[in-house]
Amino acid sequence: MRTEPILEIKGLRTVFRVRGREIAAVNGIDLVVHAGETVALVGESGSGKSVTSLSVMRLLARGIGAIDAGEMLFRGKDGTVRDLAALGEEEMRRIRGNDIGMVFQEPMTSLNPVYSIGDQISESLRVHRGTGRSTALEAAVALLDKVGIPDARRRAGQYPHELSGGMRQRATIAMALACDPTLLIADEPTTALDVTIQAQILDLLQGLQRERGMGVLFVTHNLGVVAEIADRVAVMYAGRIVECGPVAEVFRNPRHPYTLGLLNSMPRLGAASAMKRAGEKLNAIPGMVPSLADMPAGCAFAPRCGFAIEACRQNIPALESVAAGHGSRCIRWQEIAR
Ligand SMILES: Nc1ncnc2c1ncn2[C@@H]1O[C@H](COP(=O)(O)OP(=O)(O)OP(=O)(O)O)[C@@H](O)[C@H]1O
Ligand code: NI
């Protein structure tokens, strides 16, 4: 069963001006998030995951980063579809925190240190819904309780520094969900937390998503997290989506050498901590991500790819259909097997 698309990104290209040169951090991506599904955006550091989420929220640093091409069709709470790429700042401000909720890696980027947790959550309701002060504060307490913060009423009166990292992230989730958004964008929301807290936050997000039927765009570099939480996955490399499809399908049957490399570098259960103790890196793909200012011709992964042939260095591969809903940007996808 397919629900309606909440977010439909078509041909998005986002550029930065760096020392007088233009680099494309996101270079023509297509991505759909339906109601009630979680789509994970995964890839190594610098692949363009955060720039994609910042583009959707239109939070690119003004004068440095800009959307250069493409559409981001977004269905808001009232059911109207608008192109986020074409909206003015005033309209975006009405959408952020209202139709689109956001959770980042570091809770303190969303929380203001000088206001109490309860004030910050109720502020969102007051701004977007015109809810009165005491009603909004009651709603904030209920939300804090909902996201698993014990003694929510007392906590609502506390300041961010009085909460632990895990509790702070729960509070930002409460804030993100206060206005019942149709889309939640979570950029590495558990990366800064230790492992047991990570698992709890993922459970919380999953539960809330099921209950509310939101679409979730989940940015992570961790394939274990993808397996845990996502319905579909898009693998990013140097600003492009190189493979996408249902998580189970892509994990079982990866058809891009980069995805294969990421999966092979995933530690088996228990191996991660052993490797950490031994000081080894989890990166099993040889070589480095190319500089966006100096991209190779053809497939950007070719310099690191064991499957690369001359043709790979000629043209940028198109996204080919592997199976229904499963695509790969590799001309040799038929020969790739796990
Ligand atoms: N403010 C900026 N100014 C200039 N270039 C930028 C800026 N932000 C991002 N970039 C460029 O965009 C690329 C992609 O960055 P992005 O933050 O999207 O990576 P990411 O996939 O989220 O990586 P990570 O896993 O480290 O968070 C960077 O490597 C950099 O070249
Ligand atoms: Ni990032």
Structure, briefly:
The chain has eleven helices and twelve strands. The chain is α/β, with parallel strands linked by helices.
The whole-angstrom Rg is 21 Å
The secondary-structure class comes to alpha/beta
> What ions, cofactors and ligands are bound?
adenosine-5'-triphosphate, nickel (II) ion
Percent of residues in helices = 25-40%
The coarse silhouette is globular
End-to-end distance: 28 Å
> With helices defined by DSSP (H or I, 4 residues minimum), what is the helix count?
11
Low-confidence stretches: none
Number of strands: 12
For the biggest sheet, the summary is: 8 strands, mixed
Notable characteristics:
single chain; 338 residues; alpha/beta; eight-stranded mixed β-sheet; four-stranded antiparallel β-sheet; 11 helices; 32% helix; binds adenosine-5'-triphosphate; binds nickel (II) ion
